[in-house]
Amino acid sequence: GAVVSQHPSWVICKSGTSVKIECRSLDFQATTMFWYRQFPKQSLMLMATSNEGSKATYEQGVEKDKFLINHASLTLSTLTVTSAHPEDSSFYICSASRQGVNSNQPQHFGDGTRLSIL
Amino acid sequence: SQQGEEDPQALSIQEGENATMNCSYKTSINNLQWYRQNSGRGLVHLILIRSNEREKHSGRLRVTLDTSKKSSSLLITASRAADTASYFCATRFSGGYNKLIFGAGTRLAVHP
Question: Which one of A6, A45, A104 has the shortest CB-CB distance to B31?
Fold first, then answer.
């Protein structure tokens, strides 16, 4: 069964709305989670690394004030797309690993959130 | 920026045939992983090969890694229509940073 749960799976909202996406590790604690963005027929682009209890690490070119990440517990990270606009429409996916940094463990992915901004 | 490239970008085969996808990367890695993505869904981990390994098998999957050429291949034998999906390689850098960088992916279509 799924080990990482992502919610909601689909969001349609008006331009200017802020949207929060949740990523939960279901049966393990994740000190680190990752947020990706994927455009149609393209690969996953890492947006940021979410660290429990500290600030997220953003990849170059990703606006941290636009994409707010909160990792308040060992099983939950949230991504908030603030004041969303049509160009923010995309597929957002989170992932987490059972073990921490420097492990040879695979990432477990949520099922993604399709965000459509009208 | 993305770590590597995959080829082909798209592959169309008949059921029963083998499918081979290639991945190249640019820097030193701890491991390389292959993932599968069905349309509109998250990714499913298929196989992980460490930098000191050269070949790994899992069911109908065979992965090779050539660190001298910075390349890997995924072979799916006796393909089935249910194998239709996008396949991505992902590399984890050596040097202590845990993030995965994904290749461009190969879209595989297996026709009955």
Answer: A104
